[in-house]
Amino acid sequence: MARDVSIVHSCDMCRRLGLPFMTATNEHVVAIDGPPKRFDFCDPHEEQLGPLIALYREEGVELDSKRTKQVEPDTGQTAALAPPAPEEPYKVICPLDHKRGGSGPKAVSYANRSAHAQTVHNLAVWEIAWGDPEGRLPVLCNAHAKCMENKLAFENEAGRGQHTRVCPLPVVV
Q: How many Å from the N-terminal Cα to the C-terminal Cα in the chain?
């Protein structure tokens, strides 16, 4: 007797957030600073990704081998044409326990601390007392009690201003 077998992919974002199983109806292959990886999304999460997908399709610059080829060193032009070395992302310390990669505190990119707080700990960035090992975050949030309690800090006034504008916490008078 013949049997039909179907492979059904589940939504990666639903699984990551601990939500009930949702069948993935959308697939994307993405490469961000590394090899390409496949992601499967349900329709609601695909909709949330809409602006990012549009940015990728409309503004992303396709790279080819001609663009990345460097001039031979003997011309003296290599240093002038080579892109600057990427700066190592600044790391802050998440003091909470981590199930992956061993328990205890973990170094997290400053730029990704909000995403880390949400996806790994199901918390907001202001609910964690982030460590600043090099003292590069001198500007403290002075607008929200929870932020002040956890000493939420930023690299500059612009970062704090952006946070103050978008943070849903009540402003302390």
A: 74
Other C-beta atoms closer than 10 Å to the C-beta of 155 total 13
pTM above 0.70, yes or no: no
| Contact (CB, 8 A) for 141 and 160 | yes
Provide the domain count of the chain: 2
Find, among 148, 142, 155, the residue nearest to 110 by Cα. Answer: 155
Tokens of 100: 């992956």
User: Do 94 and 116 meet the contact criterion of CB atoms below 8 Å apart?
Assistant: yes
Res. 78: pLDDT tops 80? no
- Predicted confidence at residue 111, as pLDDT, reads 82
Domain that holds residue 32: 7-58
Query: Is residue 66 in some structural domain?
Result: no
The span from the CA of 166 to the CA of 173, in Å, is: 17
Q: Is residue 18 part of a domain?
A: yes
What is the token pair recorded at 145? 């009690």
Tell me the C-alpha distance between 82 and 84, whole Å: 6
Compute the chain's Rg from CA coordinates: 22
Residue 28 located in a structural domain: yes
For the segment 43-50, the average pLDDT, to the nearest whole number, is 84
